[in-house]
Design a protein that fits this description.
The complex is a heterodimer. Chain A is built from 7 helices and 11 strands. By secondary structure, chain A is an alpha/beta fold. Chain A has a single domain, classed as P-loop containing nucleotide triphosphate hydrolases (Rossmann fold). The longest helix of chain A is centred in the C-terminal third of the chain and has 16 residues. The longest helix of chain B has 38 residues. Chain B has 2 domains: 174 residues, no CATH class; 246 residues, no CATH class. In chain B, helix 2 crosses helix 13, helix 2 packs across helix 14 and helix 11 packs parallel to helix 14. The relative contact order of chain B is 0.19. In chain B, strand 2 and strand 3 form a beta hairpin. The radius of gyration of chain B is 30 Å and the shape is elongated. Chain B contains 15 helices and 10 strands. The chains are: A alpha/beta, B alpha+beta. Chains A and B meet through helix 2 and helix 3 of A and helix 1, helix 12, helix 13 and helix 15 of B. Chain B: It is found in: Cell membrane.
Chain lengths: 247, 438
């Protein structure tokens, strides 16, 4: 369903090349709930950005739902993102001057749904996250946990096949984090494939698959719930990404 | 999606009222300055009689000084005629319609003792003047050819004069004392304000039409004074009014109505033959140089649109460009503050084209708001011009519907152009770099 083969991603400045991903190989199957862990700078977010079609890559092959992404132009990738992928971010990324209804409406506008279809989907997804009664509120009137629920509703409204979450609980206290995690598990149980980047070992153990990324490569994969993951205090001792000076 | 983009634009205004207000103000200042000068130029250079401006020709014959051309220009014939040419050419009656004319003035003595006598300008013309120039009548008509020939004491009043002397009533058939003589009113004009006053641009291209119109030969009959510009390349031979009429002094204008190019060529040949005949009589010492210019050619030739008005217009365009450059800076700042939203929209599926349209609509809305405010500033600017130049530009300093539409279109176009670079930059923001930076 999502297959990455020998993906290479390099960030370049005038004098420095940073190899964010190299020989990155991964297959994610339908219905997986994959937790991606690894130290800061290991390439987790780069992987998620490429998986979410937000960034391109230099080498390798990436297939999403049978579509070879390397040959898609920017507009096609935008369409694929809109139709197949939902995003959840650490900082929620809600638009502050739009109410909850209009925030959830954003991806649907680009999908071309009519007004009735959009309204139905918005109400259903806000209902699913328990915020149907607050759809006229602005994001600033909600707690952090509620804002993340709105972000989840926005990601789900288009009924995507993939949900990509980058530190979805990073800005939440433990109770709210667990609440959001429960919601994600429910969504996964309903058939949506989830890939979640996290530093939280406890949350990672709740996914059905764990992968560990180090130096731009998948270093470990574990399909059990007791997978070995990086602990938060291990991050500080990590060597970070491979950096090479360009001649 | 257009309504959605419009809604987002208004949300954006509310989110950044100061930045948006500054952009609107910058565009308004540029548009206000530009529209003020464009309006003056537009009205100065407009076609005052579009339905037949290409068929009306101003007559010029070169009767000037053998040593120096008119206005020291070697190839320019004088811009007016002598009495001799005006009357001779009229007597020939070579064309469809023709009128020689002159400007004069006299004191009107109303019958009503409550109205003091007052000085009024007079247009001396032939009967063709009214149909040639499509002059509208409120009451009565112009005089006929017989009145021209018989030098009848008839007069056509302007609407303003009729309002002043007769209280706006139908005065046709009544008498009015002008220059100490009794004239019979045979017509009253409706409101008529050709801009520019093309039929006599030498004597105030933006003046009001005259207060009274009467047969041309009354100039000689009553010895009416010369108003307007009079130029002579040699002094009259003798003293008095008749000597002036027989001199080489120019104070008279002449227009002919010629329907086809062939008519024009025929009339020009007639003019050349006339001048050659006069040369045999010892007049017209300069080389043959006669001209027929239509209304727009004549106004261009006489530089009705003043150079300083055109310079002011170009300066105001440069000011508009400076305002737009400021708008670009403000727009960049505004879109920079929105980079997280732009990243989010890209992430959830907006294409670059979607964002380009969204922000172009927003920029256009700012432009229209700036244009509307600019129109108010232009009105203020035109009031300023009226104060600066006085009554002469009263009729020029007004905005008509064409100018209002022009202002809005110009501001829309200018703001969208100014927004192209900021919008392009916004559309090319890498979404991934923005999504984690909030």
């Amino acid at each position: 369903m999502l297959t990455m083969t020998d993906i290479k991603k390099v960030y370049r400045t005038d004098s420095i090349e940073t190899h964010a991903l190299r020989d990155f190989n991964l297959q994610v199957n339908e219905g997986d709930f994959v937790a991606v862990t690894g130290p800061s700078g290991s390439g987790k977010t780069t992987f998620l950005n490429i998986a979410g079609l937000l960034e391109t890559f230099e080498e390798g092959r990436f297939e999403l739902d049978g579509v070879d992404i390397s040959h898609q132009n920017d507009a096609s990738r935008s369409r694929l993102r809109n139709q197949k992928i939902g995003f959840i971010f650490q900082s929620f990324n809600l638009i502050p001057d739009l109410n909850l209804f209009d925030n959830v409406d954003v991806p649907l506008r680009y999908r071309g749904f009519n007004r009735q279809e959009r309204k139905k989907r918005i109400e259903n997804s806000l209902e699913m996250v328990g915020l149907a009664k607050r759809m006229k509120h602005l994001p600033a009137q909600l707690s952090g946990g509620q804002q993340q629920r709105v972000a989840i509703a926005r990601a789900l409204a288009g009924e995507p096949r993939f949900l990509l979450a980058d530190e979805p609980t990073g800005n939440l206290d433990s109770n709210m984090a667990q609440s959001v995690m429960s919601l994600l598990k429910d969504i996964n149980a309903n058939g949506t494939t989830i890939i979640m980047v996290t530093h939280d070992a406890g949350l990672a153990t709740q996914a059905t698959r764990n992968i560990h990324v180090r130096d731009g490569k998948v270093s470990e994969m574990n399909e059990s719930l007791s997978a070995k993951v990086d602990m938060p205090n291990a991050v500080a001792t990590d060597n970070g990404p491979a950096v090479a000076l360009v001649k | 999606m257009f309504n959605y983009y419009l809604k987002l634009a208004f949300n954006s205004f509310k989110r950044n009222p100061i930045l948006t207000g500054l952009m609107i103000a910058a565009i308004a200042l540029g548009i206000g300055a530009s529209m003020t000068t464009i309006t003056v130029n537009y009205l100065m250079s407009g076609d005052p009689i579009p339905e037949k401006s290409s068929q009306l020709f101003h007559v010029q014959v070169d009767s000037w000084d053998p040593n120096t051309g008119f206005n020291d220009e070697p190839n320019t014939p004088p811009n007016q005629l002598t009495w001799t040419e005006a009357t001779n050419l009229m007597a020939a009656k070579k064309d469809f319609r023709q009128t020689a004319m002159a400007k004069s003035g006299a004191i009107i003595q109303p019958d009503n003792p409550d109205i003091n006598p007052f000085e009024a300008s007079i247009r001396l013309a032939f009967s063709d003047f009214f149909p040639m120039f499509s002059v509208p009548f409120q009451y009565g008509n112009g005089w006929d050819q017989k009145a021209d020939e018989d030098r009848q004491m008839v007069v056509v009043l302007s609407k303003e004069t009729n309002d002043k002397v007769f209280g706006g009533e139908n005065s046709v058939g009544k008498n009015i004392v002008i220059f100490g003589k009794s004239f019979r009113v045979i017509g009253v004009l409706d409101a008529w304000q050709p801009l520019p006053k093309f039929y006599d641009v030498n004597n105030g291209a933006f003046d009001d039409p005259e207060a009274l119109f009467m047969p041309f030969y009354l100039k000689q009959e009553l010895e009416l004074p010369n108003w307007g510009n009079t130029n002579c390349w040699k002094s009259p031979e003798g003293e008095g009014f008749q000597a002036f009429l027989q001199s080489e002094c120019i104070n008279f204008q002449m227009w002919v109505e010629l329907e086809t190019e062939q008519d024009k060529q025929t009339y020009l040949t007639f003019l050349n033959n006339y001048v050659n005949d006069q040369k045999e009589l010892g007049r017209f010492p300069r080389p043959l140089n006669n001209r027929l210019l239509n209304v727009m050619q004549w106004m261009h030739d006489q530089e009705v649109v003043a150079d300083d008005a055109q310079i002011m217009m170009w300066l105001s365009f440069m000011f508009l460009v400076v305002c737009l450059l400021n708008t670009i800076g403000l727009q960049l700042a505004k879109f920079s503050a929105k980079s997280a939203e732009i990243g989010l929209r890209r992430a959830v599926g907006a294409t670059k084209q979607d964002l380009f349209l969204q922000y172009t609509v927003e920029t256009g809305a700012v432009g229209l708001a700036g244009g509307a405010m600019g129109l108010l500033l232009a009105l203020l600017g035109l009031v300023g011009i009226r104060h600066l130049y006085g009554d002469e530009l009263n009729d020029l300093a007004t905005l008509d519907s064409t100018m209002i539409a022009t202002a809005l279109l110009l501001s829309l176009f200018a703001s969208v152009c100014a927004g192209l670079y900021p919008t392009w930059r916004a559309c090319n923001i890498a979404p991934a770099s923005q999504l984690k930076s909030q």
